[in-house]
Amino acid sequence: MVSTSYKILTRFLETHNNNPAINLLNKSLKKKLSLSPAQRRNDEIISIYQASIQNIENDFLTSNYDDSLLDWYHLLFQEMEGHIAIMERGSRHKFVVIIPVADRPQHLKNCLNSLLVLCQSFHYGGFRNHKFEKVSVIIADDSKHSNNIWDNREIAHYFNNHGLETLYFGQDEQLEQIDQLTNEKRRPLAGVLGSCDRLAFYHKGPSTMRNIVYLKLNEMSSHEEKLLFYFVDSDQEFRARIHSDDGDKDVYAINYFYELNRIFSSHDISVLTGKVVGDPPVSPAVMTGTFLDDIIAFLLLIRESGAEHSCQFHQTTRRNANEAAYHDMANLFGFTPPSGTYRYNCTLDGKHDNCHCFTDFSGKLNQFFYGEHPTRKSYFSHEVDIHRITPARTVYTGNYIFNNSGLNHFIPFANLKLRMAGPVLGRLIRSELKDQFVSANLPMLHNRTVENTGQSEFRPGIEKKADSIDLSGEFERQFFGDILLFAIEKLAETGYPMQMPAKASIVKTLRSTEENILQQYTEKRAEILGKLEQLKTIFSNKDSWWNQSKALEPATENFNLFINNIGNYSPPHHPD
């Protein structure tokens, strides 16, 4: 359905006339509507919609994203989209959302549910012939287990029937795409596409999976010019987490497609990256120290005040979301390490005491090994202008968008399966694209775990046996990923990849980078072991109230499991 009315806009302006800016917009609209249809300029009325929407975004900051304001926000966009569809249907970008997934059907379903709600909330591009015309999806399946492959196919079928054009791109489809390459083209792409083992064509890794999808996207780009390719991770959602007086809230407060279409239409750019809010985008291997700091502070405070004291963990304030506060080595990336600890923000409702908070917090401890950081989350706010772009240096591979020319920039070193693939890609893109590579305040919600289990469905590098969790594999992927990143950063300063350095220079750079990173990891691990011993001493103290109650034994066992699992992995050693 295409809307040609102005009912929502008129009603909004009339019901919010206590605002002087709204009053002016209302007078302007009435003047425009008094003209004959032939005299009206649709672009001028669109500007009134845009100014009204901007006014709501400003009010979000003081209203804690009030539900009624969000409703107006969605309704205004929906009505405006009806007018835009008439004016410029052919000139707007069509989005292809690509979701690489490996044995995570519940994550995938949550991600697509959020995308469907986003489309229903904002109507970008319009809804015709039982589908959203300007948004489609590719599920790039890298799953190993047949039941998950079946589930992912069914998920594609479900969302196809609910208005999201969804293509399932499984192992057969991927191999078929690769088979279209001649041997001459395939050989130089071995490091990009992997070994293509047909007997085990799964868990190839997200970087290799993305590169294989590029082949499909290249084929699509030859048929349509106004395409934007939007890569997201399966454990993300198209909404944002905000911090309010009533606690954390996940809201549909970003019209991603509208904003991205505007940015790519008005700027000469090839690649744009957003970020994530909610759970950190980094490995638990580099968050252990900050979490131990916060647990120690939690126990010291709760021990001093006593079990029956009313819960003290509901007065927390949001800290700066851009300071990488969760990262043990934030200084490596140019951030100033945060000072002080972060207080846990209790999620229990109703009246309760420290004892209940202690029990609830204990249940969140081991979610840390799957990528959560219970004390240091990131939040979205319109304080940072969503309409503004800034130069970028890191690609967030779970939230990046590019046009046809961006297809030239595949994920490098994909077959190594290391972490930091996005930052490495970002350094290389920045070296070549300069101002055509940008960042915008368009984050997605990141949920490392699924609600019913508190664990990730599948996460490479984590070995779980009974109650034991071993992060050694994840730790090594992070360590060698950091070496690769900072070596590439040094090489890029000399002109790489546009100019290839001598082999001896590359080897020297790698060795010096490895020595530096190993030293920092070793020092950080020593700090972590010291903090772990401090935590053990505080927690095991027999005089502490949590060790004097049989009813708290399940909670104390959660703490003991966490402490034991932190000691399960060691830093990488320098190879002989």
Essential attributes:
576 residues, three-stranded mixed beta sheet, eight-stranded mixed beta sheet, 17 helices, alpha/beta, Spore Coat Polysaccharide Biosynthesis Protein SpsA, Chain A, 45% helix, single chain
Question: Gist?
Answer:
The chain folds into three domains: about 5-90, no CATH class; about 90-280 and about 380-445, Spore Coat Polysaccharide Biosynthesis Protein SpsA, Chain A; about 285-375 and about 465-565, no CATH class.
Give the arrangement of secondary structure elements:
Layout (H helix, E strand, L loop, with lengths): L6 H9 L4 H14 L8 H22 L3 H22 L5 E8 L3 H18 L4 E2 L2 E2 L2 E7 L4 H16 L3 E5 L1 H9 L3 H4 L3 H4 L12 H16 L5 E6 L3 E2 L2 E5 L2 E5 L4 H11 L4 E3 L2 E3 L9 H18 L48 H9 L26 E3 L7 E4 L18 H13 L3 E4 L3 E3 L16 E3 L2 E3 L1 H22 L9 H38 L12 H14 L10
Parallel strand pairs: 1-4, 1-6, 4-5, 10-14, 11-15
Antiparallel strand pairs: 2-3, 6-13, 7-15, 8-9, 10-13, 12-14, 16-17
Helix pairs in contact: 1-4, 2-3, 3-4, 5-6, 12-16, 13-17, 14-15, 15-16
